[in-house]
Backbone:
């Protein structure tokens, strides 16, 4: 399985979390006109949530454009979502939306830029998830 792909707005919260993970990661550009990275290996997406009070707009438009490419979407294996607990039931809603629309597991939720504990849990969870994915691949190739 490949690495991480993430989107981070100007606030940089998601970028700070990804930086602390210390894992290979590719950033989806903030500006619509910037080139989108070509993804060729399975990946986990880390995405913040930007929703109005009703949940509309939870997934950033840049992420929607990125996942609208069928070849890229086919490589998505899971999603980790960020958000702000002040929004109650809408906390990390982007993960629920992406999970449901792309039929992949929601692996973890974190608040804002995450904590040291979040970083530890995400690293450990990704290691387990990658091992499980590799086991699945070995079984299908046998």
Residues:
């Amino acid at each position: 399985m490949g690495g991480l792909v993430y989107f981070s707005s100007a606030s940089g919260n998601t970028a700070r979390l990804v930086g602390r993970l210390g894992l290979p990661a590719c950033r989806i550009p903030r500006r619509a006109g910037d080139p989108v990275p070509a993804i060729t290996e399975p990946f986990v997406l880390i995405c913040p949530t930007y929703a109005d009070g009703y949940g509309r707009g939870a997934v950033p438009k840049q992420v929607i454009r990125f996942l609208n490419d069928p070849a890229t979407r086919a490589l998505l294996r899971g999603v980790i979502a960020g958000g702000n607990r002040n929004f109650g039931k809408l906390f990390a809603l982007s993960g629920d939306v992406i999970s449901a629309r792309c039929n992949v597991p929601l692996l973890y939720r974190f608040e804002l830029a995450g904590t040291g504990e979040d970083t530890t849990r995400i690293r450990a969870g990704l290691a387990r998830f990658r091992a499980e994915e590799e086991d699945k691949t070995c079984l299908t190739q046998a």
Q: What stands out?
A: The CA atoms of residues 44 and 78 lie 5 Å apart. The chain has a mean pLDDT of 89. The radius of gyration is 15 Å. The longest strand covers residues 76-83.
